[in-house]
Amino acid sequence: MAFFSRCAVVALLCGLAGICGAQQTASSAPVPLTMEAIYGGEPLTGTPPDGFAWSPDGKLLSYVANGELVGLDVATGKPQTLVSREKLQSLLGGSGGTEQDRDHRARYKMESYWWAPDSGHLLFDADGRLWLFDLKTGTGTEMGFTGAAAGDNPTFSPNGEIVAFVRDHGLSVMHLKEGFTTLGPPVVGIAAAPNSTTLNGEVDWVYAEELDVRSNYSWSPDSKNIAFLQMNETNVPEYPLTDWIPVHAKAETQRYPQAGDLNPEVRVGVVSAGGGKVAWVKLPIHGGQDYIPRFGWVDRHTLWIETLSRDHKTRTVYFADPWNNDGSHGRTALQTLVVTDDKFLDENYDVWVGNGAIVLTSWVDGHNHVYVANYDQGNPLGGPATPPRQVTKGTWDVGSVLAVDTAKQMVFYTSNEFELLDRQIARVSFAGERRTLTQGAGTHEGNVAPGDEVFVDTFSTRTTPPRISLCHVGAAGGESGSACKEFWASKSLDAYKLHAPVQIETKAKDGTVLYATLMLPEGEHGNKSVPVILNPYGGPTGQTVLNRWGDNVWGDKFLFDALLAQHGFAVLRTDNRGTPGRGRDFVQAAYRDFGKVQLEDQLTMLDEALEKFPELDGKRVGVWGWSWGGTFTLYAMTHSDRFQAGVSVAPVTDWRDYDSVYTERYLGIPFDEQDLYKRTAVVETAKNLHGRLLLAHGTGDDNVHIENTVQFVEKLIEAGIPYDLQIFPRKTHEILGGTVRPELFNRIVAHFEQYLQPAAKPE
After folding, report:
1. Is position 420 within any domain?
2. How far is CA 249 from the centre of its chain?
3. Local confidence band at 328 (pLDDT 50, 70, 90 cut-offs)
């Protein structure tokens, strides 16, 4: 993409977004943004529908809106109330649980209701208490208490006669009878955990956080057996999460494998739905220390199991019959497919198996694409699958796979095929025939219905908040596009007269093209009159320079940048090498490098912005970030003297303090890479801090522990360097809440106003 002038880009985006000041009357003054308006309550754009789910027959799309459970008729596009506000409140209960429990549900998007296979009943989880709701009669039946906090998903058997769930770290089942109206026998424990440190079917913290695991058990197609992952956490170190608010402080311990620690030992077992002896599958997973991200059933006799080596360089799919012909247990699995990389594999570990096909994504050709391997459907264990065959091709990346139908040989996915910073929804046949299903510059995110002919499209741009449509694939005709009908749109932000950021591009020192956005204050400014704030994420799993509305429906990025601009600051966001969405080599720049290449690219883009926009003051530069971005902020301020002020929120300050799965993927094992870990630990360079620093952290952060900030503070004290510190009691990594979020962001603004000393402040 060629560089456009600021005026041209703003005019173009204003025309697309329809929210810019040019479309307002000249006499109307813009409504100023405030921190409380952005973070203090409902999103400025309104609360969108949540909890999308499809009825198994594909006839209804259900979601929660305005406190009700709504069903959108796929055929007519008309909504109907499935469960009223009052009944839904009684079925879901209060918020319940600890701060960590509530954050866990929100962070990992844990469901609170599920469709029964008959499409006539719904299962609700009210903080561990299960209710079965009959849509025909409008009545709910309490099924029992699972004892599970933080969303350990209950599931129906395929025939709908049994519900399985996790209780006391083990698998239990409830039997239903008489058309779902009454319970059968009481709760039966079919795979009880042998002790408090063993999880049968339960997901631990690191698998949920880093491998996107949401369920660790799977029903066989004939509803007779359940395969489950056993995780033995006995040797995993414990971390204390301390609550200092009570008079007598309390601490909860969390099993958390830091880099180099022992991981949970894992193995796959199969147990009858009626209980009995567990059949364990024999897998070559190096003492249980490799990972098992996904597993399921090929058919009612055969399992498929995906393993990932601890160094993240080998991904293998195995087939296994858990029972030998003589009735004994423990048959060794057959290796059927292997994917390797000499640095690290792409972190998408989803696999789809069925009807003689194995579908997965890989970046083996340099970009992330869809691949299909075939096996003998009549005899899955007869031999290995065929070598994976590439289905999508090109110098672009498949972003996420939305759905796979192995029977119809069809894959739905998002990609940046047509514009690097956009995302479109498309589908491709196993034969490679592609069809783009969405149109319009921006980001399209999808949710595909059973039957593959209907999907939900959530669309946004940098300056256009989300709008959601129901789309029919078959009704469009032609080679691309779908017939879509919008059923929810964000509230207008016209009154704020928001303007678009400018897009900039330049080249890194190795010639790679880099992209950035620059939000500028309104009006004309003299030379070097505007301080500039860098706000990178910079890490391997985060991309910020997209044509998308912020991080989420709240539009945090865009609206906070606009507020900073109201205060006279310019905000520069750059995706450096090491961030995703740009092919394998771009991401793998982070291999054994957590800081140097990222800082080089950020400073290169800063220099480009200073050259092209003379109003920016290169002597008044700030930087702030959260999580990996917080770590990078500390790296930048301790490895460069160009930053006069910075804010680091929830940073990792020593990579030995972070979890094994994420950290070892890029940096290896600390014992083998001692110099590398020391070189990338910002606690080692704290004594070199330039500029004034504000640190912020939640005391209940179970992701990046507060020990990171404490360790960095100790080094600052030893070096005699002044600093500012803001802690948030009981708050987790997201630091959520109607009072604490405004507090945090007000502190950020005040910090930059004090130490960057903008030439003029808004009244």
Report:
1. yes
2. 32
3. very low
